[in-house]
């Protein structure tokens, strides 16, 4: 009984400490969630809200973006409907294309491919992971050895070779990335399935005479999917980097599709001439988006662990 006040004080101190440390992760989670939501919105409506046609060059070639001192005046002129001249918030590239419009439209390619690839790999990897965790040893071993085979080669090099051989269509890129990311979900789901199979509710279902397949699909798989879905929110960011990287080296989306990697590659030659903006703004868009998905995924993981 004499230890009760000390234990209560220790718990209170821990709660206060955890509460004081919580705001920063929570803010990062909310920031990540907002970034994810914005990227998904732009994926759907981005090409329709651009101020300029993303495929039609303007008459202004390689115009730099406005300075910070000019932004308030230009913003007021645009909001009041009285701009004196065309406004290019991110400047134009060497072809006269408005960079701001193309950055807004690019999630239709980058985010859509990344999300599509992760949905396919999540579905396929979860089913194969369930199979590896519940099937006979020889079949489980076969699934895991195939997973090892896919992961034995560098992801980017493998993706570049497969996309080049199969064709540079968005569907091909989605399927290629799905193949490369499926082993992640196989291993994660299998580990969770093995953990869930030792839980009491599984033993109770067996005692009621339920078949193993029914138990696996009805109880084990839904509980094992939660960590895989959390992982998917982080892997989308990796897939965005992969998509942009493939396009940067000429093995991804075909021009003139608005795509962040293509924009960086197109502006790379102008950097030595002082034209930094065609590559900077798509690069920032990639960095912010990937950070947002990572922060969102980490926040989901913390909440699931509580």
TrEMBL record:
The chain crosses the membrane at residues 28-49, 111-134, 146-166, 172-189, 228-253, 276-296. It holds the Pfam family BPD_transp_1. It is found in: Cell membrane. PROSITE patterns: ABC_TM1. Keywords: Cell membrane, Membrane, Peptide transport, Protein transport, Transmembrane, Transmembrane helix, Transport. Residues 107-297 form the ABC transmembrane type-1 domain. Its main location: membrane. The keyword Phosphoprotein does not apply. GO terms for cellular component: plasma membrane. It is a multi-pass membrane protein. The keyword Ubl conjugation does not apply. It comes from Muricoccus nepalensis. InterPro entries: BP-dependent_transpt_permease, MetI-like, MetI-like_sf. This is ABC transporter permease. Gene3D superfamilies: MetI-like. Belongs to the binding-protein-dependent transport system permease family. One of its GO terms (biological process) is transmembrane transport.
């Amino acid at each position: 009984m004499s230890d009760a006040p000390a234990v209560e004080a220790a718990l209170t101190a821990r709660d206060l400490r955890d509460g004081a440390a919580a705001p920063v992760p929570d803010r990062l989670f909310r920031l990540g969630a907002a970034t994810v939501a914005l990227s998904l919105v732009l994926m759907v409506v981005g090409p329709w809200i651009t101020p300029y046609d993303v495929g039609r060059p303007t008459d202004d070639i390689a115009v730099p973006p406005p300075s910070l001192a000019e932004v308030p005046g230009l913003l007021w002129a645009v909001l009041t409907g009285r701009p004196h001249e065309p406004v290019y918030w991110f400047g134009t590239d060497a072809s006269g294309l408005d960079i701001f419009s193309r950055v807004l439209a690019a999630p239709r390619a980058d985010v859509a491919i990344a999300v599509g690839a992760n949905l396919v790999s999540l579905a396929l990897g979860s089913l194969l992971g369930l199979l590896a965790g519940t099937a006979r040893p020889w079949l489980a071993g076969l699934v895991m050895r195939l997973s090892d085979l896919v992961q034995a080669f560098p992801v980017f090099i493998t993706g570049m070779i497969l996309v080049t051989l199969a064709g540079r269509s968005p569907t091909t890129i989605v399927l290629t990335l799905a193949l490369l990311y499926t082993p992640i979900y196989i291993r994660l789901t299998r580990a969770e399935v093995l953990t869930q199979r030792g839980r009491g509710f599984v033993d109770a279902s067996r005692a009621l005479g339920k078949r193993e397949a029914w138990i696996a699909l009805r109880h084990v798989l839904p509980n094992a999917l939660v960590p895989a879905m959390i992982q998917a929110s982080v892997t989308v960011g990796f897939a965005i980097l992969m998509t942009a990287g493939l396009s940067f080296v000429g093995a991804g989306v075909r021009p003139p599709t608005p795509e962040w990697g293509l924009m960086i590659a197109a502006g790379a030659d102008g950097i030595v001439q002082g034209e930094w903006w065609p590559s900077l703004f798509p690069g920032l868009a990639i960095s912010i988006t990937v950070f947002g998905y990572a922060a969102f995924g980490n926040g989901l993981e913390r909440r699931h662990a509580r």
